[in-house]
Each structure stands twice: as C-alpha cells, then as structure tokens.
Amino acid sequence: MRLLIAALCLLPLPLRADPAIDRVLDDVVTPGFTSFVAATDALERAAQADCRASSDGLRGAWNAAMDAWLSVADLRFGPLEDDARRQIIAYWPDKSGHRTKALARLLTPGNPGLADAGLFRQQPVSVRGLYGIEAMIYDSRFNGYGPDDPGCALVRMAAADLDETARAAAEAWDTDFAATLRTAGDGANARFLDEIEARQVVFTALLASIQFDINERIGLPIGTVETPRPLRAEGRLSGRAQRNLELALAAHERLAMALAPDDALMTAEDFERVRFMAGKLDDPDFSGVETPTGRFRLEAVQTALTLLRTVANEELSAALGVTMGLNALDGD
Amino acid sequence: MTSRRQFLGTALAAAALPRLGWADAGDPAFLAAAQDPDGSYSLFGLSASGADLFRVPLPARGHAATAHPEVPEAVAFARRPGTYALVLNCATGRVIARLTAAPGREFNGHGAYSMDGDTLYTSEVVALTGEGRIALWSRSDGYRRIGEVASGGIGPHEIRRLPGTEMLVVANGGIRTGPGDREKLNLDTMAPNLTYLMPDGTVEDQARLAPEWHRASIRHLALDAFGNVAFAMQWEGPVEEAPALLGFHGLHGGAPRLARAPDDLHRAMQGYAGSIAAFEAGGKVAISSPKGGRVQVFDSDGTFAHEILRADVCGLAPLGDRLVMTDGHGAFVVTEGGVPVGHTRAPRAWDNHIVAL
C-alpha cells in the first residue's frame, strides 16, 4: 500500500518568521492595543474629571473606549482569555440579567466594594468593564447619581479597573505572548508546536468572532418571528448596536486580510458587501427588529455574514494550511 | 467461553489464511478516523510516531475502531447512528467485509473482539426504542451476524472486553435517540450504567451513578491490564452543575469512585469528556474535552495530576508511559509528563478517537 508520508508535514519546520503572524501582530495587535489602552486611560481621566452620566467628556471617552475595544475583541486567545480578562472588560451577553441586580446591590452608601480597588475586583464581572459603565451612564435606573453618590464612585472605580485590565492584557502581549506566537515551532515553545498552530489559533478566533456576530450581536435581538428581542441588543442602552456591528465587521476584515491579504479575494468582496449592508441599516439600537422592514434588513445582514463565514473558512483555511476542527462542535 | 464450534471455526480459518501478523501492516500502532480537506472520511493506520501507514476511505463519518487481537485486521465503525462497519485487512488496506446494520438496529460507534478473535461484538441500539444490544458477528463465518444480547441499558456506546476473560464491560450511555438521528429524547429520565456481561447475555455486575447525577452519560472506557475500568462521562444537565466526568470501577466493586479536577479547571471541561485513555501501565488516566480545549490527567487513585491545553483535542491513546492525543486541526501529539515531546501534522481533522493497537 502506498504510503502517504508525502502528504504529511514532518516537523519541526525550519525556524523563520511567519509573514501571516507578523502581519497580525503589526497590523492588528500592536495598533489595536495601543489605541485600546490610550482610550481606557482617557476614560479613567474623564471619570476622575467629571463622573456624572451627563458629562460629555465621560460619554465621549466611554464611546471611544468601546470603539477601541472592538478593534481587539477578535483576539480570542492569549492575554484576553487569561485571568478572565474578556469577561471583565466586556461581559456580554448578560442573558440572565445579572448586571442590573449586581449594580443595585453594589450601589449602597459606604459599600466597601466602591472604596477599595481590591474589593471592587471581587465584585461580579457584570458590574465591571465597558458594559457596567454603559449601564451607569445610559440606563435611567442608574444614571441620576451626583458627584457624591455611590454611582460616581462606581464609575470611577470601574474606569480605573478597566484601564488596569486593558494595560495588563497589552503588557502580556508585549512582553510574552507576541513572542510566543512568533516562535511557534521552536523546540521550547510548548504552546504552539508548529507554525500552523499559531495560524490556527488566529483563524479559529476570527471564525468564532464572526459566529459571535451571527448568533449574539445579531441573533439575540432578532429573536424569533413571534418574539423579536430588541432589548437584548448589544449597545441598546447607548444606542450603538449598529455601530458596534459595523466596527466588529471592520475588525474581522482587518484580521482576515492580515492573515491572507492576497488569497482571500472572495472573502474581501463579501466583507465589502456585508459592511455596506450593515451601514445602511439606519437602526442605531436595533429596535427596528420589531418592524417587518427592520427585521428583514438585519436578517439579510445575518444571512450575508453566514455566507461570508463559509467563504472565509474555505479561502483562509486553504491559504493558511489550517483545518477547522470538528470535535468541539458535536461530540459523541 | 469459546464453544467447540467457534474453536473449530477459528482453527479452520487459521489454516486457510496466510499467516499475516500485525507487523506485516508496517507495524501500525494506532488507528484513527478523520475528515479529509475535501469533506470525505477515511481511516488511517499510524506508526508510533504518527506517520501515515495506510489510508482507507470510509463511506461516511467514522467514529472508533477495534483491532483483531492477532491478525492485522480491524473494524472501523461509523459514527452513530451508524449503518456500516468495515473490516479491513490492515496489511493491504483492502476491505474484507462490510457489516451492515440489521433491520431495525443501528451501530453505535464501538466494538470489541473475543479473546480468540473469532467473535466481534458491536454496540447497537434498537432504532425505535434506544434499547441497547450487543451483536455477535462470526469472523470465521464471513462476519455473519450470529446473534445479539441485551446490553443492560439504553444507548450503549463503548464496549470493551476485560483482559484475559470473555467478559464484556459496556458503557450504557442512557440516552435514547430517535431512529436515524441524534436528537436526545429522554434527558429527564436517562439512567446510564456500566454493565458487565458475558457473551451469552448473563449480567455479572452493574454499576450506576448516584440519582442526582443520572444525567452524566457514561460513554467511553479505558482498561488497565488487570481489568480495572475507568470511564468518561458527558453531562447532559446545566453546564455549571456538571459533576465529575471521570469514574473508576472494577467488577463487583460496588459504587464507582469519581474524580474531578479543582473547581476552575473542572469548569473549563464544560461538562464534557470526549475520550479516555489509561497509560503508564494503568497508573494514569487522561480524559479529553474538545469543547474546553484541554486534556486532564489523573492518577489512578483519582488524584488530579495536570492538564494539557490543546484546541479541539479529542482522541487519546496510550503509548507506553506516554500519552498520544489527536485534534481536529490535524495534529498528532506525543506527550510525556504533560509536555509535548513530538508531533506530526496532517491536513485533515482527526475525529473523536485514536485507537491503540
């Protein structure tokens, strides 16, 4: 019987920089985290300057931090997954409604959780991070606080905590994880046994991020035909559901093009089309899912994104030499 | 026990066949099913270092395989609900028999041989009811289906033969599915068990979990040379309530002993163990969670030892004191003491199991 050794890559591969990984680091990770940390810094300063929900400075800084987060959120491996950082930064969706209850519990005068950073870190993740602050400054049940109220202390504490978490993730990338990715296949690298594994982790994160948009960012507010769920939209409170989707799509596209700039032409075309469709939604908080037209438009984006994901899977896996796994999807 | 008829059959078959031992197949150390990049399915024979030795196309998605104890022959099973099993000559890659599920029966992905290798046992279900069956197939009679016995539960999955005996141990997963599909129909009432039975259907022992854990489906088995059984489970309840996913039991051993990693690590398994292997002469047992992207290793007394992170990992097999793992991204990794010491990669997605020969 003919041996198929020819079809097998015998490893380790010779050590050399992987251009795909270099582009991911240079085009996505480094600029993304630089912006994200700058934005969370600015948010912390804005909260110190004026913690009130009505403050234009605070709202502007929070929106900028949200924008910047979406440019790194696709990096679903390494520092953002360690120490529960993703949960801390962006706990969403909150399907069981933990956030409202946890905020109400925490917002009591003299609560030590609002006076000490260490104690704040022990609070539920639902009150921390970007969405905790969003609720404080956009939810009418919470945003009436004055400068001396617990709400003010919470916003300042959450902004500082977010900044610290963002810095920790950025530093972990800088001092450790970027090198771990770049040295895939090095004998001492137990995390990535070869170049393919480094590409694989980025590729898998990209597809998972697109799936997140399909299932959660779009799928949650769409709900069912009988029961649309506009209140479940991400960014419902701040009226930026559409903006979040558009920025997420742009981030997916940047990551895809960093992985395979020349070999994913159909994927690039699909991204252009889906971003155009998302830009035309004219539905900032996705409340349009309750109308036939609004629902149809958002479903059309969801369908187009589902097709895009299939195309991206085919083109990128071929270009990168990676294989989409099957065990995690449906076990036995 | 081997009947006189079986014995004579084996003797005749042995006389008629050229004497090919496992070494003639290029010494494959493992069998594993995979999905190829074009979406088709194959069974691969692999060397101890993970090199391809042969490839046999499969008609549909495969699951596990079992090797004949003496001759280079193996049976590859379809993923449940399975309609086929292929008997392969691993020296030539030729399919020497095709087993088709009997009317109203479905293969459930696993099987085992009798001591003399003349009887193949397959885990099956009655398609309409999910009731478990162990079917008997006679190798010397051209792999004719010669009978079946009750498996002792619903939805049997893996079956193994206790070393040095004809006794079978069956993981009755407890989950009833509809005919021809994988939809789970009885999650509220499921009651998995571990059943020890003889090929004539006599049940020798049966172990169950505590009632509050009745939704932990016992699905996969690993045995040491003494017949001590380790079993891996898949939790069908709310994931945050998942109990231990690993259990230990021995014939007439009473209640199973359960083992789990410390809380954070246990949670990361997401209530799901997809495969199990005993290695270091039975001193260690590993379970894999493709959903959690990790393999957790325990001492045979149930003490958690360490974990190894690998995305989409599922297949596990012993290689002496080493542990081999395969994943859906095409990697075959050999680890020692939790550290990778060698690997190969192929452009294919390794499916749930890798079977040591």
Helical coverage of chain B, percent range = under 10%
The tally of structural domains of chain B comes to 1
* Structural class estimated from helices and strands of chain A: mainly alpha
Query: What is the β-strand count of chain A?
Result: 1
Strand order of the largest sheet of chain B: 3-2-1-28
The string of secondary-structure elements of chain B, in order, is: HEEEEEEEEEEEEEEEEEEEHEEEEEEEEE
Oligomer: heterodimer
Element layout with pairings:
The complex is a heterodimer of chains A (332) and B (357).
Chain A lengths: L8 E2 L8 H31 L6 H15 L14 H5 L8 H9 L10 H4 L8 H10 L11 H33 L12 H28 L18 H19 L5 H15 L12 H29 L12
Helix pairs in contact in A: 1-2, 1-7, 1-9, 2-6, 6-7, 8-9, 8-11, 9-10, 10-11
Chain B lengths: L3 H13 L13 E6 L5 E6 L5 E7 L3 E6 L5 E6 L5 E6 L4 E7 L4 E9 L5 E8 L4 E8 L5 E11 L1 E6 L6 E5 L20 E5 L5 E6 L7 E8 L5 E7 L10 E4 L7 E3 L3 H6 L6 E5 L4 E6 L4 E6 L4 E6 L3 E7 L2 E6 L3 E6 L2 E7 L3 E8 L1
Antiparallel strand pairs in B: 1-2, 1-28, 2-3, 4-5, 5-6, 6-7, 8-9, 9-10, 10-11, 12-13, 13-14, 14-15, 16-17, 17-18, 18-19, 20-21, 21-22, 22-23, 24-25, 25-26, 26-27
Please characterize this protein's 3D structure.
The complex is a heterodimer of chains A (332) and B (357). Chain A has helices spanning 19-49, 56-70, 85-89, 98-106, 117-120, 129-138, 150-182, 195-222, 241-259, 265-279, 292-320; one strand at residues 9-10. With 332 residues, chain A is mainly α. Chain A has 2 domains: 19-182, Up-down Bundle (A middle domain of Talin 1), CATH 1.20.1420; 195-320. In chain A, helix 6 (129-138) packs antiparallel against helix 7 (150-182) and helix 9 (241-259) runs antiparallel to helix 10. The two termini of chain A are 31 Å apart. Chain B is mainly beta and 357 residues long. Chain B has a single domain (4-356), classed as 7 Propeller (Methylamine Dehydrogenase, Chain H). In chain B, the strands form 7 sheets. Chain B has a 4-stranded antiparallel sheet with strand order 3-2-1-28, with no helix packed on it. In chain B, strands 4-5-6-7 form a 4-stranded antiparallel sheet, with no helix packed on it. Chain B has a 4-stranded antiparallel sheet with strand order 8-9-10-11, with no helix packed on it. The longest helix of chain B is centred in the first third of the chain and has 13 residues, at 4-16. Chain B is globular, with a radius of gyration of 19 Å. The chains are: A mainly alpha (332), B mainly beta (357). The A-B interface holds A 1, 3-5, 7-11, 190-191, 193-194, 196-197, 200-201, 204, 317, 321-328, 330-332 and B 26, 35, 37, 51-55, 63, 79-80, 91-93, 109, 157, 182, 219, 234, 272, 274, 290-291, 293, 309, 311-314, 327-331, 333, 339-340, 343-352. Strand 1 of chain A pairs antiparallel with strand 27 of chain B.
